[in-house]
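Collaborator request, handled under Task 6.
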Amino acid sequence: MVPLDALALSRDPLPRVDAEASALNARYGHLGAHDVIALTADELFPGRGALVSSFGADSSVLLHIVSEVDRDLPVIFLDTGRLFAETLEYRTRLTDLFGLTDVRTVTPDPSRLASNDPHRALWMTNPDLCCHIRKTEPLQRALTGFDAWFTGRKRFQNAQRAALGLFEADGERIKVNPLANWSIVDLKAYADRHGLPEHPLVAKGYPSIGCVPCTSRVAVGEDIRAGRWRGLDKTECGIHMPLETDGSGI
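Structure tokens returned to the collaborator:
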């Protein structure tokens, strides 16, 4: 990592990472997506950064930008075992189209599934635990050895993301949100300009796509994430929230 004066902070205790994220935002918060990815991957955390992508509705934009900066950047894909077949096909299509060389598909621990979700119905009784086992735990394992990771989150997506910074503290890691200030219009303009293929489910009424049981079509006029965990007091899967337990449950 390059010397950053005020950023020359130890990664523990954890409050130091909060200070580091704040200092990074103060110094680099004005950068565009291409520049912040290049800065993070090449200078701040060389060889220690990864992109986590759902290969969902608007994932093509960030994946395309990453491919222009560094096609060898590790890309982590969480296959929960409950994804749409269209999402798996889209992952393969974008990987090949963009020439991404290091897409890593990670899956849940089979023993955890056997113990907690033997009938594949945990999403009905405890959706938070289901997300924890199928997403959060595999991601924690996949991020071992990385000091920073990129996400595709944007401020417009929900109230919890409205104040999203370009850099965030995430435990002992720095989380980077290159598209934080992009709008729906920005995303569409970029996709159109570069001829990026749309996720096949978007045209069928799915503007935000997760696991099959917890994703439904969105009606005209509804919020774009209204189809995620419909009817539940839940807006996030958990990978972008601090853990409150040791992993045995939430």
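The cover message to the collaborator said: "The radius of gyration is 18 Å. Residues 127-142 form the longest helix (16 residues). Please let us know whether this matches your experimental observations."
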